[in-house]
Amino acid sequence: MKQGRKLIAIMVVLLVSLGIQSSSAWAKGGSPAKVVKDFGRAYFMLDPSMTSYLSEGALINENEEGTVDLYLEARAAEAKNLGYKTSYLQLLPIGIKTKVLNMDDSSAKIQFNAMTIRSINPLFRIVGFIFGLIEENEVEDIITLVKEDGEWKIGPGAFDMPG
């Protein structure tokens, strides 16, 4: 009898994990809101992987220069002028909320709202909150997306990307 209960417990765990796995795989489908959230995280954390979320029109400006490279170089220069490493300027977006404003088969407009805080060691962050040293910034923007090759991509002009 004990063996039967163990078998049932194992089967339940396997079925639940299979359900979770399949639902997370379905969620990775690339909805416009998810693309905006993922791009927002990469953008504020100064992650070069943000390139994969940008459309062809947003990758290169009118001078044939890469917009991501220009943005990351500008942030690195800003950090150097302040006397910090580039990682100091990384901002952690928390409480990201998106709202679909307009959507059709080939384009979408998504409202992006988030709070950003300096991306530092979590222990320092707790101490900073206790003593009121952590600065929170509210970010609001409307992001335009276009569909390229069946995938949603961020259009030109997102946040303050160089155009």
How are strands sequenced across the largest beta sheet? 1-2-3-4
Q: N-to-C SSE series? A: HHHHEEHEE
CATH topology: Nuclear Transport Factor 2, Chain: A
Shape: globular
Main beta sheet: strand number and arrangement? 4 strands, antiparallel
What structural category arises from helix and sheet content? alpha+beta
Q: Mind telling me which CATH architecture this is?
A: Roll
Look at the structure and give the CATH class: Alpha Beta
The N- and C-terminal alpha carbons lie at a distance of: 69 Å
Unreliable spans: 22-29
**Tally of individual helices:** 5
How much β-strand is present in the residues? 25-35%
- The beta-strand count equals 4
Rg from alpha-carbon coordinates:
21 Å
Task: Provide the number of structural domains.
Answer: 1
Mean pLDDT across every amino acid position: 84
Helix content: 40-55%
Could you explain how this protein is built, in words?
The chain starts with a helix and ends in a 9-residue tail after the last strand. 42% of the residues lie in helices and 25% in strands. The chain is an alpha+beta fold and 163 residues long. A hairpin with a 3-residue loop joins strand 1 (91-103) and strand 2. The radius of gyration is 21 Å and the shape is globular. It has five helices and four strands; from the N terminus they run ααααββαββ. A four-stranded antiparallel sheet has the order 1-2-3-4, with helices on one face. It has helices at 2-27, 32-44, 56-59, 67-82, 122-130, and strands at residues 91-103, 107-118, 137-148, 151-154. It has a single domain, classed as Roll (Nuclear Transport Factor 2, Chain: A).
